[in-house]
Amino acid sequence: MPTIRALVLNCTLKRSPATSSSEVLGQEVLDALDRQGVDGEMLRVVDHDVRFGVSTDEGDGDGWPAIREKLLAAQILVIATPIWLGQPSSVCKMVLERLDAELSETDDEGRMLTYGKVAGVAVVGNEDGAHHTIGQVQQALNEVGFTCPAAGATYWVGEALHTTDYVDARPKPDTTGRSTKALALNSAHLARLLADQPYPPPDTTGAAQGA
Questions:
Q1: DSSP for 18-44, written as a single string
Q2: pLDDT-based confidence at 120, cuts 50/70/90?
Q3: What is the SS3 assignment for 207?
Q4: Where are the alpha helices (DSSP H) in 60-173?
Q5: Axis-axis angle for helices 174-196, 21-34 (nearest 10)
Q6: Cis bond before residue 17 (omega within 30° of 0)
Q7: Cβ contact 75:195 at 8 Å
């Protein structure tokens, strides 16, 4: 059975050591993945000097190349993001913009380096918009080569204008827990399938695969 590693990118706006609900849910995803035999780690993006841009390296001390190296070494990527104004955080959007560079990064057979990697999403917020946020992030990740599993997201949102964050929610809702377990189970399963049977290289002849 191939070794599977996961990377959670916490896209909170808060620098360490500030408390982050995205980190709490991201860690719960890592714990659930660990029960599926997946090793993993979490990075808080704002703790690194990631520059705005759409290349793999924006130079001048850009923190993205080191994060990208860990991303390429993992088989599962989880984006953990809060909701602000009904949208993914600006840090999440910056991460997705940096991933745009993967469209032109390919292996010797013409496949994007992200092919065969699984992507999940974890969302927290105190307002509606989780499904919208998940949809935005999943679409972007799929476009740059990641594969999203069935039930590939987990989320928690409090009531509108409520002051309770997920980190303080007691008891933790069973619905979020079940979604987190499903995300971990299906991500690990899909990652092992893709490791065993990678996507075929692109067909440049115009003929249908298998024709």
A1: S--HHHHHHHHHHHHHHTTT-EEEEEE
A2: very high
A3: coil
A4: 64-73, 90-99, 130-143
A5: 50
A6: yes
A7: yes
In the DSSP assignment, the letter for residue 9 is E
Instruction: Name the strand (E) or helix (H) holding 60.
Output: none
Q: Encoding tokens for residue 70?
A: 């860990």
Looking from the CA of 143 toward its CB, the CA atoms found within 13 Å total 12
C-alpha to C-alpha distance for 145 and 104, rounded to whole angstroms: 11
Token code pair at residue 18: 């500030």
**For residue range 40-87, what is the model confidence (pLDDT) as tens digits?**
999 999 999 999 999 999 999 999 999 999 999 999 999 999 999 899
Predicted TM-score (pTM) of this structure:
0.92
Place of tokens 């299906």: 186
Q: Which fold has domain 5-196?
A: Rossmann fold (3.40.50)
State how far the Cα of 8 lies from the Cα of 124, in Å rounded to an integer.
14
Are the C-beta atoms of 13 and 46 separated by less than 8 Å?
Answer: yes
With a pLDDT cut of 90, the percent of the chain lying above it is 82
Domain ranges of the chain: 5-196
- Whether 201 shows a pLDDT value over 70: the answer reads yes
Q: Which residues does residue 199 pair with via DSSP β-bridges, in sequence order? A: none
